[in-house]
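Protoheme IX farnesyltransferase
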Amino acid sequence: MALVERKHVEERDGLLSEATAADFIALLKPRVMSLVVFTAFVGMVLAPAAPNPLLALIAILAIAVGAGAAGALNMWYDADIDAVMARTRGRPVPMGRVAPGEALAFGLVLSAFAVMTLGLMANWLAASLLAFTIFFYVVIYTMWLKRSTPQNIVIGGAAGALPPVIGWAAVTGAVTVESLVLFLIIFLWTPPHFWALALFKAGDYARAGIPMMPNVAGEAHTRRQIFAYAVPVAASGVLPSLMGFASLSYGAVAAVLGGGFVWYAWRVLRMDPQDRVMEPAKTLFAYSLVYLFAIFAALLADGLIGRLGG
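Predicted structure tokens:
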């Protein structure tokens, strides 16, 4: 009986867990990881040098592992607020399926493995960028900005915008203006994307004590900020064509997609303040996901066609 009671105490205190492989996969935030891998791959394809296929595969896997490691460390640190948010309370750590210490060790080991692998197999510039991305996401964003300022997403978005730069650097060993344009597209996209989510999840963020824009500055200010960002988001999407590292056909596609982003942001701006359903915000949030994927898919197709044509 004493052993049974001790086990219950240890499980309560996070010393033991009954984690499955699926739980550890969940720690990696697979949906976020897939977007990281995709944008990093696009960065590799658009880079002027042609990568060795095997090294490119290893580099992409290292970037994926690094992104997953950052997700695991984020879940370790945010377990307290994840437990009170409806959107996140089912994650492995707040549910008790993975002990906090396990999540921390898992994230640290994967981080070291990913950075070392990318450095040894590609180059140390790409590895340094990956290490910086993990550090920025976990320490600067998760531990500091997220709980202290409504600008958390604006500044913290840099972490999610770096993967195409890492992919580009893995191939070329350099950071160029073109790779920074890819960074800019994601960096500008991040605030309106998350602020749209925050509009219809404001209660969740309030319960967790996270100072998202709607909770601090109000819904009206948030809606104006979303629209203010929508125009540069649309403009940044066209930049690759204007700068000559994507075709005019891509530019036309990007212009149409950007026009859609501005239109949905306009609907959010003009939204009835009494609308508790927040349908325009939900629509913009969904479209923003489609937008970013479509922009990078168009860049990928354009780059592959250019290589085949060249």
